Amino acid sequence: MGKERIPRIDNNEKVRKLLLPHCRLKYGEIWEDSVRGHKIGCLDATDENDTTRLMGNNKATLAIQDPPYNVIVGNSNTNNLSKISVENYIKWSKQWVQNIVRILKSDAHFYIWLGADQNQGFQPLPDFMIMMREFNDLKTRSFITMRNQRGYGTQKNWMAVRQELLYYIKGNPDFETQYTEIPKILRGYYKNVNGEVKENLERSKSNTIRPGNVWVDVQQVFYRMEENVPGCYAQKPLKAIEKIILSCSKKGDLVVDFFAHSGTTLLAAEKLRRKCFTIDIDPIFAEITIRRFEHLRGTGKTGWQFRNPFPEVKVKLGIENDEKIRPKGVLQKTLFDISDNAKNKEAICKS
Ligand SMILES: C[S@@+](CC[C@H](N)C(=O)[O-])C[C@H]1O[C@@H](n2cnc3c(N)ncnc32)[C@H](O)[C@@H]1O
Questions:
Q1: pLDDT of residue 195
Q2: What's the number of domains the chain is made of?
Q3: How far apart are the first and last CA of the chain?
Q4: Number of H helices, E strands in the chain
Q5: What pLDDT is attached to residue 79?
Q6: Residue 151 has pLDDT above 80, yes or no
Q7: CATH number for the domain that contains residue 274
Q8: Closest atom of ligand 1 to CA, residue 67
Q9: 157 C-alpha vs ligand 1 centroid, how far in Å?
Q10: Is residue 7 part of a domain?
Q11: Ligand 1 mutation target, pool 281, 284, 287, 293, most atoms within 8 A of CB
Q12: Number of CB atoms found within 10 A of residue 339's CB
């Protein structure tokens, strides 16, 4: 495994030139997994022909979409990132949403991660929500916020830690509650159940908290975690995608993600025995998605931590110079990894 790290890939022409010859897919091509039938395409989410070709006669139970937000992500000092007008962003979004709606089953779930730039009228979130009203087949279901902390924030404003997730449904799909690992500690709320007075912990189905639409128990991915994929600037935590897949699909169901990037949805689908069709317009991210999937199948590992997913390419453009201060080893537990607390739930309940 190569030790040299790769910087953010999408806008670094030098690195892109080095990586592109090692990518299996050219635009228009689809890779298929012979074991579980997953598909990874280098295709355009806004192109009806591309998405129809990907799907064939298949329809999806669940769509989890994480488009570019038209908001600058990562270190804007080192990147020449550009935004398009909100109007054009919404036109572009409408095209891929149409393609998703076309390929959903009559009863299906549709999730969209989106940004809200607090320095730019909270766009594109509000205009995107208004645009979504044009899709009569879709009903709004929930507006989730995941806590997503990067760095230490500012002293001059509330720290920006929100990550917005919109949830729509088509028809009347099944939903199965997934409890968090956060132990219930509130006691003393009594209720008469069939003539017997019961305390709330005795009455509940689980000793841990039922999830609401504010998620505080998902750790943001960073370089010390095994699931980290170097070069991917917008990777979502596996735990968040697993929560969605578990509550909104069954084993064998088809999950789609038209903005693969580091392939998180595919990985979660593979782990949970769902089938996944995923695409990225960029051959490098399509390749990273294939490699991450093969890496999981081959090693059981969910990412490369801070190691290079292209070990055959010696990339010399490190962005961070923190090798000296970086502690050795993979971070197995984080602040939010509270399963030990969950194991102690009995003790907590009895106390
Ligand atoms: C925010 S990232 C998705 C992150 C992903 N959820 C993950 O966990 O790694 C958005 C991705 O969409 C891809 N993309 C942008 N425009 C696209 C299009 N028209 N069709 C398909 N993919 C596109 C980008 O190349 C980028 O990799």
A1: 87
A2: 1
A3: 49
A4: 10, 13
A5: 39
A6: no
A7: 3.40.50.150
A8: 10
A9: 30
A10: no
A11: 281
A12: 10
Q: List beta partners, residue 165.
A: 113, 144
Cα of 283 to ligand 1 centre, how many Å?
A: 11
Query: Which of 29-43, 119-133, 176-190, 220-234 is predicted with the least confidence, judged by mean pLDDT?
Result: 176-190
Residue 90 CA, ligand 1 centroid: distance in Å: 16
Residue 197 within a domain: no
Question: At residue 225, what is the residue type?
Answer: M
Contact 235, 262 (CB under 8 A): yes
Contacts of 350 (CB under 8 A, 6+ apart): none
Q: Examine residue 52 and state whether it is found in any structural domain, yes or no.
A: yes
Instruction: Domain of residue 140: give its range.
Output: 13-180+206-339
What number does the ligand 1 atom closest to the CA of 64 have? Answer: 6
pLDDT digits (tens, 9 = 90+) for 266-290: 999 999 999 999 999 999 999 999 9
pTM of the entire predicted model: 0.88
Determine the distance separating the centroid of ligand 1 and the alpha carbon of 68, expressed in angstroms.
6
- CA 141 from chain centre, in angstroms, equals 19
pLDDT, position 336: 44
Is the pLDDT reported for residue 3 higher than 60?
Answer: no
Element at 117 (helix H, strand E): strand 116-117
The binding-site residues of ligand 1, defined as CB within 6 angstroms of any ligand atom, are 44-46, 66-68, 232, 234-236, 258-259, 261-262, 264, 279-282, 285
> Over the stretch 285-330, which tens digit does the pLDDT of each residue have?
999 999 999 999 999 999 999 899 999 998 753 434 444 444 555 5
CA of 151 to the centre of ligand 1 (A): 23
319 domain residue, yes or no: yes
How far is the C-alpha of 24 from the C-alpha of 119, rounded, in Å? 40
> Ligand 1 center to residue 69 CA distance, Å?
10
Determine the average pLDDT of the residues in 6-10: 80
Return the ligand 1 atom nearest residue 260 CA. Answer: 5
